[in-house]
Amino acid sequence: MSDTLTLKKAAAAPVSPGDFLAAWVGGKADRTLRGLLLPILLLGLLEIAARKGWVEARLLPPPSEIGATLWQLAQGDLWSHIGASLARVSIGFVIGSVLGLAVAVLVGLNRTLEDLLDPTFQALRNVPSLAWVPLLLLWFGIDEAPKITMIALGAFFPVYLNVVCGLQNVDRKLIEVGEIHGLGKFELARRILLPASLPSVFTGLRTALGLAWMFLVAAELIAASKGLGYLLSDGRETSRPDLVIAAIFLIALLGKVSDSALAAIEVRSLYWRDTLRTRKRRHA
User: Has this prediction a pTM greater than 0.70?
Assistant: First the structure.
């Protein structure tokens, strides 16, 4: 009886907004909603700042105006711009990642190839994306080839670097166990080295995907007539900050969605690991 009265008093007790927010953020609320909390707060602050005149609307338009711009674009050719950018990122990411994975396996498992190729790759990966534009224009012209090539370059190096590091940091005891059981080089790579380096593979892939979206903007500066990078350039030339910010928002949104999809594949593929991340997910 006393327990029932205690529960009724607790339910009737007033809860302050601060206590509710702390319980919601620190409790088991949906992770997606918690992730949206900061963007919503920032958008609200920007809207207030623009309406109050704390920032100039011509430099930073309020989110409501940007939303109206997105709605207006959606009634027109926005989807063709999104489709063009998605196609370029997808093709460039796949080409760069596959090549990066193949070369990394060869370099990671062969000391001679590492000595021959790795210094050159380590130098080339530091070249900024815009530095490739003049050369790719001279080589491929202004069609899709230079755009996809630039995105593939952006995706290649993170995959290559992470996979090589992952292969070379596999526990030596695992390799010795495989050799004791008579595994050849191919079986050793397939059954021990590659599975053990799989976390590094996914780290490289997720980094490569992020860089593919970054390189997209530089790629679509190469005489593009469609794409989100084209919208950015068009907004700059027409002095429309709402269009520029709308394009940035779409790139960020698409990048987040694609990264979340890849992260979900990573979690499913690495379910066997007992790590802090998997422990957090089990208790989320």
Answer: yes
